[in-house]
Each structure stands twice: as C-alpha cells, then as structure tokens.
Amino acid sequence: SGNPYQWSWQFPGAVTTESDQQNPMGIQYNDEGEFSVTLTVSNNLGLDTNTKELYIKVSEEDPCTVAPTVAFDANPRLIAAGQSVQFEDLSIGYPSYHTWSFPGGTPSYSNEGSPTNPIVYSTPGIYDVTLTVNNSCGASYITKENYIYVFSGAVQSYCDTLTTINPGEVVEARVPPGTWGFLAGHNGLTIKEYANYFEAHTFSQVKAVLVPVIYANYGTYTSKVTFYIADGNYPTPDSILGSKNVYIRDLVANQTNLVTFDNPIEIDGPFYVGYKITYVDANSDGYSDDMFVVGMAAPRANIPEYNQMYLKKSNVWYTCNEYFDFSSSLPLRPISCLVDIEQLIAETSVNVFPNPSSGLVTIQLTDESISNFSIEIYDALGRKIINGNSSIGSNEYVTDLSAYPEGLYIIRINSGDRIINKKLLLTK
C-alpha cells in the first residue's frame, strides 16, 4: 500500500535470490528446507520492510496434506446497540493467517486467530461477518450473512420466515413422467420422502413450518405425514433433529398449514426441512389411497447450485438434478429464530410444578445467580392477578391459585435485566 514504485525482494535458499520486479515469478528452490522471504518497498516518502519467517516450505514429497477449513462462532449474536460480541475461530487444518471482516463493528477487521478483544457494535442493524484463513497448502473463507443482530434496546429472540422460492417463481403440482400422482407427494414412483435444504447460519432453532398444501386426501383415518428438521451439515437429510406427526385429515388443501413442533428444534448452521409419507393401497389397484401433495418450483436449469430439493426412493437419496435432470425447490417455509443463549439458560433454571395444577404451585429456581427478582402471575388476558410469593426454602416459592378459574396463566420472574415467562395450566 502507499503507492510504492520500487521493490526489492530477497529469497534466501532459492536459485534466484533477488528480484526488483513487483510480482516476481518462477522463483525455484532445489533444496529441502524452510526459507524466509523479505520484501522492501519504497516511494519518495521512504521505505518499509516485511520479512515472513520460514514462509516457503520445500520437501521431496508434497508437504501440503491439509488445506485449512474455515469455521467460527460468536456469542452473543443478539445484542443491544453499544454492546460487544466475542468471536472464536474454530477452523481446522492449522491455518497460519486469519483475516476477519466485521462490517458495522469496531474494530472492523482483525488478523488474530480468535480476536482478543470483543467487537463493539454501536449502530442498530443486521450485519455479516467474514473470516478467511490460509496456510501454505491453500485458503478457505466463509461469509455468514445476517449473522449479528443489533437492536436499539434489549431483545431476547428474533424470528423470521425463510424460503428458497425465488420472487415470481411458479410453484406447481408436477406430474412425474409416465405414471400417476404428483411431485412432491404420492405418485407411481413411490417416492416416500422429500426434503429441502436451507443454508442459513443465522438462526439457532426452528419453531414451526408453513406448509402450502395442494392435496390432502386420506385413505385411512390414521394416515399421517411426518414433518422433520435434519442437520444440514450432512450431504443427505438422515440426521433428524426433531419431528412432528400430523394426520392428513387435519391438513387443509389449497391452504398454507402451520405445523408447530412440540418443542423448538435446535440447529447450528444449515438444515433440512422434510416430510415422510406412506403408501396405503387397501384395494390393491396400484394407486395410493392417500394423496398428500405440497408442490415444487417449476423446473430450473440443471445446475446443482440452483437446487435445494431432495427426494428418497428405495431408501436412496437423490437431488432433483440427479433424478429428474433439473433443479427445483420445495415451498416449505420454516419459522426460524435466533434466541439469546443466556435467556435459554435462564429459562431452563426455573421449574414450575405441578403443571397442570389444581391450585398450589411451586416455583423452583436452580440458578443461584438469579437474585433481586419478583414473581408475578398473569391470566390469559394479560391481567396481573398475583404479585408476590411465599418462600418455602432457600430456592423454592409457593403460590395458591385455587381461587381462580381454570385456564392458562403466565408466571413471570423479573430479575431486572431479564424476564423469564413460564406457562401454567390450571385445572379443577
């Protein structure tokens, strides 16, 4: 940098030991060893010198066995403006050099492995983070888009709906060639499983999936579809993280159906959203008595990068490219959330029992760091009915709701900087 116009290179151990070219080429090494390289640059204001020690490695055999693979993590990723984020390098392959880019952060870059000081974000917004690593065998980089969320005030979670359907793209119930039925659903090819790949680094859990159903005809009262989330760090959707069975009779055709998982499913990076179907043929006519169809994006060019759709036939996974010679995508829309890790820890440190309850309720705090708190109870309409508690131990409190009607209540523990809500069902 600085517009130099003179260059002086030194290559000890090489056949050509010096050069005054800006970008010298063809520097040959005939002997094994590790060699340093020095560059001196100058302009009319002065000169500067940089030596990289043991920079060139020469071996009888190729010394490059492992190029680095980049990976990193951050905590927290959900902050108020003015707070900071600590980044950790998780790369493998012994990288020698690191280059971080933190747009919106201070400082905005770093060359440390794991930056010693946290990165401060002062302006609300959603920011990308990029890390490039390299060693003598190669380089690797990754940009995690929409990775750091900075709000004007404290926030505990942020949710969004994801899709891989492009704007203006047509979703259709496509007929498979030479047989009955539809893609992506029941058909004469007896495809029993479909999945869609989401390359998202942003979110930490999936709460639900929006499913645009085209057909929902059930042959038996117990016919069902199993919706699931699978780990996207694997080449096929076999590592299932969580699932939900839904009866076809409960799904509505020509509408977008909301499938909510019993508990949010934790994810770490890319993931699959998929569903499994079964084939029922009670009269043995060769046609399924069930007909569940979601549809798919109209065929795209047969380019693997354009495809997110996977299908499973005869227990073998295929991409849409591999099986049908075109790329496509499923219109499934996961509702994904980024949740404050400290909030998750706090929520798991509060137990409410029995739940459901007929009156007496015990609130147990297992985290001793929760102090100077208040306990409030609200009914389903948001009206505060109880403010206070009675201690029955060092970390247990009891309250009596027997005088209140049946229904859903919210127990709120307010510790000043954090609010923990627990649902309670009151039955009589």
Q: Can you offer a commentary on this structure?
A:
The protein starts with 5 loop residues before the first strand and ends with a strand. It is about 5% helix and about 45% strand. The protein has helices at about 320-325, 340-350; strands at about 5-10, 20, 35-45, 45-60, 70-75, 80, 85-90, 95-100, 105, 110, 120, 125-135, 140-150, 155-160, 170, 195-200, 205-215, 215, 225-230, 240-245, 255-265, 270-275, 290-295, 295, 310-315, 315-320, 335-340, 350-355, 360-365, 375-380, 385, 390, 395-400, 405-415, 420-425. The chain has two helices and 35 strands. About 25% of the residues are buried. The strands form nine sheets. It has a six-stranded antiparallel sheet with strand order 20-19-22-16-25-26. Strands 6-13-12-8-10 form a five-stranded mixed sheet, with no helix packed on it. A four-stranded antiparallel sheet has the order 2-1-3-4, with no helix packed on it. The longest helix is centred in the last third of the chain and has 8 residues, at about 340-350. With about 425 residues, it is mainly beta.
Binned strand content: over 45%
Helix content: under 10%
What about the largest sheet? 6 strands, antiparallel
State Rg.
29 Å
| Side-by-side strand order of the widest sheet | 20-19-22-16-25-26
| Shape assignment | flat
Q: Would you count the extended β strands for me?
A: 35
Count of separate DSSP helical elements: 2
Low-confidence stretches: none
Give the terminus-to-terminus CA distance. Answer: 77 Å
Instruction: Return the average pLDDT rounded to an integer.
Output: 90
Q: Decide which structural class fits the backbone.
A: mainly beta
